Amino acid sequence: MKKYFIFLGFYYLSSLLQAQYSFEYKNFQKLEHLSLESNAKKETNCVVLTSDEISQKGGLWHTKQKINIKNGFITEFSFRIHKNGISWNEPNLSGADGIAFVIHNNSQATDQGEIGGGMGYEKIPNCVAVEFDTWANEQENSNHIAIQTKGKYPNTAQPEGTIAKNENLPVLLKNGEIHQATIEYKDKKIVIFLNKIKVLEKEIDLSKTISLEDNEKAWIGFTASTGAAFSQHEIHSWSFKEYIPPIIVVEKPKTLENRTIVGKNKIKVKSRKISLEIWDQGIEDGDIISLNLNNQWILENYTIKKRKKIIEITLEGKENYLVLHALNLGSSPPNTVALTIKDSKKTHKTLLNSNMKASDSIEIMYDGE
User: Exposed, middle or buried by CB within 10 Å (0-12, 13-18, 19+), for 151?
Assistant: First the structure.
């Protein structure tokens, strides 16, 4: 028989080098790759989302490309809410409705949001909003930060869309001062800072909360609105940086240190649960192998027979590598081992040839939904 080693090994860079996408607008002197919506306008050193008038809404969107939220990001911005007023005689109430940082996945979100309590993002589907709210809606106070989402359905600024909220902020949002905000999404958690003080955090998997495409990418921007009460809402600076996964080098098994790994074609499977079958198509000659999946041994010191050996496994990531490593050459070198990979829809069969200086490799790609 010929002998066969499969190395589906993870002894290479598990994350390919990639560019870290970022941008920064210090004072909005230029609006390159930005889009202003509805009543939003540029002033000398800021973008005014809404002026101090009734029934306004405005948006500021980054339109160069979708951003990758799969690995997380950090965004920082400064804002000011001032010129507070109200259209009826109410001395104890003044100023509305606030600013929201919005993540969404829609072909277009411009002019979809609502004025007044909708804060410019209400009714946008596939949307998560971090709102800096200055008006008391149902069961709320008039100075809070909240995370709002209805998943893939149209979002709402009302309490039924609230998944996290802080009503005890260290500062009044609409006091006319410029405030600094930081929003970090990492390890499936959103953390929000106001003037460098952590004010809210919430565990949330954005890729499961809203429906994403394009390798878990989304559009980002700001909205604001006024109703019968009003404020001027301004964004004075904005920066964004996506995180990229660290480059992890997983060492090959020590027993293969002196071997060359020869790449084979990729095999695509449609389900994570697959079965491996290995057997000797030639003459049984005492070949002994160990099987390695993603740098973990799943079968050790096994003597290959004509009878098929079946191993059930579950793939975790999209890219998976296997080693069928020969521990001897048997009595009839060179050696070949037969292998089939079965998923829920298809059976893939291959032969791999190896000697004691080189091992073949196959990449199993999970290509399911």
Answer: middle
* Tens-binned pLDDT, residue by residue, of the chain (369 aa): 433 333 333 333 333 345 689 999 999 999 999 999 999 999 999 999 999 999 999 999 999 999 988 889 999 999 999 999 999 887 777 899 999 999 999 866 556 778 888 999 999 999 999 999 999 877 678 899 999 999 999 999 999 999 999 999 999 999 999 999 999 999 999 999 999 999 999 999 998 999 887 778 899 999 999 999 999 999 999 999 999 876 544 444 444 556 666 666 788 898 889 999 988 887 777 778 878 788 888 888 888 888 899 999 888 888 888 877 777 776 666 667 888 999 888 898 887 666 677 677 788 888 876
How many helices (H) and strands (E) the chain has is answered by 1, 24
H/E run at residue 208? helix 206-209
Domain with CATH 2.60.120.200 in the chain: 22-242
Which backbone phi and psi does 342 adopt, to 5 degrees? -115, 130
Q: What's 254-366's CATH class?
A: mainly beta
Question: Is omega for the bond preceding 125 within 30 degrees of 0, making it cis?
Answer: no
The closest of 3, 13, 28 to 238, measured between CA atoms, is 28
pTM summary value: 0.65
Exposed/middle/buried for 175, CB within 10 Å: 0-12, 13-18, 19+? Answer: middle
Q: Which CATH code, of 1.10.10.10, 2.60.120.200, 3.40.190.10, 3.40.50.10860, is assigned to 22-242?
A: 2.60.120.200
Q: Tell me the chain's radius of gyration from C-alpha atoms.
A: 29
Q: Which two tokens stand for residue 339?
A: 């292998």
At 33, list the tokens: 């790759």
Match 């952590």 to its residue by tokens.
198
Coil, strand or helix: which one is 201?
Answer: strand
DSSP, res 355: B
